[in-house]
Amino acid sequence: MMELDLMYPSCDSLDSDDEYEKFIRRMNPPRVVIDNESCARATVVRVDSANKYGILLEVVQALTDLNLIIIKAYITSDGGWVMDVFNVTDHEGKKIRDEASIKSIVDCIRKSLGADFSFRPSRRRSVDFAPSSDYTSIELTGTDRPGLLSEVSAVLTDLKCNVVTAEIWTHNNRAAAVMQVTDEVTGAAITDPEKLSRIKALLCNVLEGNNKTRGAKTAISKGVTHTERRLHQMMFADRDYQRTGQNLVDETMRPKVSVVNCYDKDYSVVTIQCKDRPKLLFDTICTLTDMQYVVFHANADGEGPEAYQEYYIRHIDGFPVNSEAERERIVQCLEAAIERRVSEGLKLELCTNDRVGLLSDVTRIFRENSLTVTRAEVSTKGGKAINTFYVRDATGNQVDAKIIDAIRQAIGQTVLQVKEVSRSPPQESPTRFLFSGLFKSRSFCNFGLTKSYS
In this structure, what are the phi and psi dihedrals at residue 15, rounded to the nearest 5 degrees? Predict the structure, then answer.
C-alpha cells in the first residue's frame, strides 16, 4: 500500500489538487467489505479508501440514508488512507443478511466515494429555491414562534402550492425547514419567475415576524441537496447554537461535551456523552465538518441507552484548538447538533389521503388549540399523506388530554395517533478516552481491521 502524507489545505487550494486526488483514487479504489461473522449482534461494514476532506461524513450519511443504526464506529485516517469500521443493524436491532440490502450498502458507499466526488461545505441560508423537474425545493430559516408552520403552510396553500415532503426543525428560538412543493395546476415544479418571487417575498414576511434584527433573507440555489444535511448547515449558519436569556434549559438534559488538547500528538480530543438515538453520529460529524475540522481518529459506542463519542481532530488548517473561545464554540455547536433532532412531549402521527391544503388545515387546528410544532416530518406515498408532528403547549405547560381529544375529533380519530415522547437525564459516567493506548502504540493502520467486534 502506498503511504501518502497529505496535509489538509484550505477549501480554495483543494481545487488545484483535484486532479491529483482523482489520480490517487483511481490507483486506490475504495474497498467496502460486509462481515456478518465477526460480531454476534451487528453487521460489520469496513471501508478502506484514499483520504479526502469530508469522506467520513459521506460514508456515515450513506449508512444513515439506508436507515441503518450505527451502534459502534471505529475511525482512523492517519495520513493519506482511511480505514473505518461500522457496526450496524436495522431498526429492529437485527443484522443485515439479505443479499439485496448488502449490495445496496456496498453500492451506496462506493457511490459516495466516487472519483468525481468533491465535498464543499455550503453556507446558503434563509429562503432558497432548488430547481427540479418534479418539485421546487424551498429552504426557510427564521425566528420560531407558535403557529409559524401554520402560517407558512397557509401562504403556500393560498398560492396554489402543494407540499409533497417537508422537514422542519426548531432549536433555541430558531426554525429551519426544507420543503418540496409542486404547482397545484401542473403537478410539477414551479417555473414561473413571478410566482417564485411572490412566494419568496410572502414567506420572508412570515418568517421575519416582529424580529427585525434576525429576519429572513432570500437566495436562489442551483442544486438539490440532502435534506437533513441542509438543515444542519442552515441552523449552523443561522447561529442557533447561541443560547439567549429566553432559553430555559434543564442542565440535567444537556449533552456533556468536552474539548481538551492532546499536546504530545498535537490533536484536540472531543468527547460526547448523551442519550443515544438514531442518527446521532451523523449529526455530530455534520457539525464538525461544517466547522471545518478534520477527524483523524474516532470511536463511537451507542449500544446502551447512553452514547459515547470521542474524536481526535484538528482544524482544516492543521492546528488543534488553540483558544478558550474556540473550545467553547465547539462545545456549543455540538450541543446544538445533538439537541436539534431531540423532541419532547407528544408525537402525533397522521396518515390519510393526501390533498392540497392538508398541511395547512392540520397545523391550523394545532394553532387554534394552542399547540406549537417543535419538529415535523411530512411525506406523501402512493397518494397517502404520512406526517409526524412533535408538539407542545404554546404556554410551556403539559398538553391537556382534552385538547388532544378535541384535535383528534376535528382531524379524525382513526387518522391521527398519539404517542408520548419522554427524555431522561444522562446517567453519570466517567469520560472514556478509548484511544489512549492506541496513541502510545502508534498502531493506527491496523486499528479495527483485524479485531472481532462483538
Answer: -60, -40
